[in-house]
Amino acid sequence: MVRVSTALLNEVTAIGLTKNVSETLVAHLSKRPLRGPDKTGRLVGGEAIGASFPIKDGLQWTPEQFHARAIKNFSIQSPTTANYTLTLYVKSQKLLDAHRLFDEIPHRDVRTWTTLLSGFCCAGSSSNIVLDLFRSMQVEGVTPNDFTLSTVLKSCACLTSLKLGKEVHGWILRNGVDADSVLENSILDMYVKCKELDSARILFDSMEEKSTVAWNVMIKGYVNDGDMESSMNLFQTLPFKDVGSWNTLIHGLMRNGRARTALELLYEKKLGPIFNEFTFSIVLCLAAALNLLDLGRQIHSRVIRFGSDTNEFIRTSLIDMYSKCGKVEIASSILGKIPVGCEMVPNYKMSPGELSRQTVSFSSLISGYVHVGDHESAFRTFRAMIYSQAMVNEYIVTSILSACASTGVLGLGLQVHAYIQKVGHKMDVPLRSSLVFMYAECGNLEDAKLIFEVEKSSCVGLWTSMISGLATNGRGREAIDLFECMLNEGVIPNEITFVSVLSACSHSGLLEEGGKYFKIMKEVYGIKPRIEHFTCMVDLYGRRGQLDEIKQFIYQNGISNLASVWKSFLFSCRLHRNVELGNWVHEKLLKLIPDDPEPYVLSSNLCANDGRWEEAATIRSQMRKRGLRKLPGQSWIQLKNVVHTFIMGDDSHPKSLEIHAFLDDLIGRLKEIGYSPDAKLVMHDVEQEEGEKFVGFHSEKIAIAYGLMNTGSRMPVRVMKNLRICTDCHNFIKSASQHFGREIIVRDIHRFHHFRDGKCSCGDWW
């Protein structure tokens, strides 16, 4: 008797039969064979004549409904109907029900076996299930056809089951199957995907007629194995190169770090009419990788002419290309209008479901905003994604954490960390590294350490993030100790690690240690010093006042063409008030970077500090003649999710009068405990009292005053600044931390300063 599930009986009942009648029908199915569908698709035979399939009331029937109807019409025993029902179950991925029906079919032909085999293959089932079915088929005396064998081989390829693939290939050879091109390609594809390239090449060479598909399979096999020479040689001998051949090789060259060769091959292709949508996406990725905006724009125009600009895959590639080429506004316009803040604008058309499908596009857009420094737009886009309940992946989270680190917006960084925990993102090493970096760059070393110490890791990036965090926060000795611990754990440092270590030595004045690590970087680890390493060493010599050693170091290492080392040299001259040497360095910089305002500002300040007002005025005049302007000092502070920005002399803040009154009063109180404004820092020949007014309203002082006015007495005040903090502000904040008994944290362009009880974490080595 044919067995039937409760669900199936319910379906029978749903189409008008009682449970008792349904069970009776099931019990007698084997005795009531029907002839199956006629030419019009209607099942005929017995009492089922006139039954229509597979449409019911204008809607497609489910496999269960079709199966139930076949039972009612006594047609389930027809091979055609049974096979069709089995196909419905397989296409619906209801393999358990399909297998049950398969077991109940009395006469199973090659189509029946192949249908079930293909279902398990497409679902990625284990090779054992597929092999057992294949063997059982032969035991039952059913001879597999070419399509059956291709299906099994496809499963072997998908599951990279070389053992099963060889068994099937052996069966084909033993039974003398005359394989057509499709079957031969299936065997070839199986060997390639199982990384058995030698066997694949033997089979390929033995083929009498090689289709373009076979050529492309071999080329892709070499590409995936990283053997680009073999793939290119094979490509050159290919008699007919279709669009798939070009796509495979160009994409492979890109994946294997040979983007320039891919570009040459692309021009050899002459951008002809054989482009398809995948080609467009590949070339756009190539333009993004090489930062070739002109090429990207040419491809964009072709995309529009071909009418492919509505393709989601190509739109994503366009967004990625424009974002990586710095044209984020164009990328944003392609994606669509972004919601402002947390409220959807009325004409915003994308639904949350559509936003979820465009996660990759948003990821490219956000990383593009971060890359060009438009962090506010990155934050706005991220908030829009959260509000729209779009899927936020780890790449987006990492980009936002990078933006938080760059701007020092700890509040948003904390919210992002909470979001990560809420949605359950896997806390893998890259994400932990990003969190460590964010907390450290926002001056919160305690939380950075907690995340770093969750578990030991051999990832150099995680160690480097923590070492860098300690360095920028004035913990030079701790950074060096952690570096030594890293070496003891067997983690191999890279060039970025050494930048962090040398920076730690520089910020803490550790000249001997810095020289030691610079030496072992070259001699032990074979790392060629980059600009950042040389600049750290020059800065380290300068902080210790060894200016003559800087000259010797620059010429010994052949780096006199690097403007950054001369800038560091000039700052050291200013720090130690060596005007003559500073003027000499300034002349060197004028030859290298005549249109950079920073050397003029440093030299002018150097002369002003020494009372050489005429020389300072001359330098300022030269600067004006070149049309150069000093970057204005800017400081910002985040309070209650709002970022307040301050610039010296800017009264646009709604509470400017209150802030200035508070700051005037504070400076007066700090003078009573020893603070003395340094009027020599002013670039003008003015009286002491007037000079004090100039330095008294630097942007960081205003931001700190606002923070002290609007935070609790035990809360730390966190301020960010776009330039290096000046000596007067440094002394002012030390006195303010002592007066209020509060921690004040300032991050300038180079490092963090943690002020507590009248002292700074930098130890005055800034």
TrEMBL record:
The family database entries (InterPro entries) matched by this protein are listed as: DYW_dom, E2_motif, E_motif, PPR_At4g14850-like_plant, PPR_rpt, TPR-like_helical_dom_sf
The answer on whether this UniProt entry bears the keyword Repeat reads yes
Keywords of the record: Repeat
Q: Say which domain of life the source belongs to.
A: Eukaryota
Name a biological process GO annotation.
Answer: RNA modification
Give an example GO molecular function.
RNA binding
Q: Does the keyword Lipoprotein apply?
A: no
Spans of the PPR repeats are: 109-144, 211-245, 459-493
Which residues does the UniProt record annotate as the domain DYW? 674-766
Q: Which family does it belong to?
A: Belongs to the PPR family. PCMP-H subfamily.
> Per its record, how is this protein called by name?
DYW domain-containing protein
Q: Which organism is it from?
A: Trapa incisa
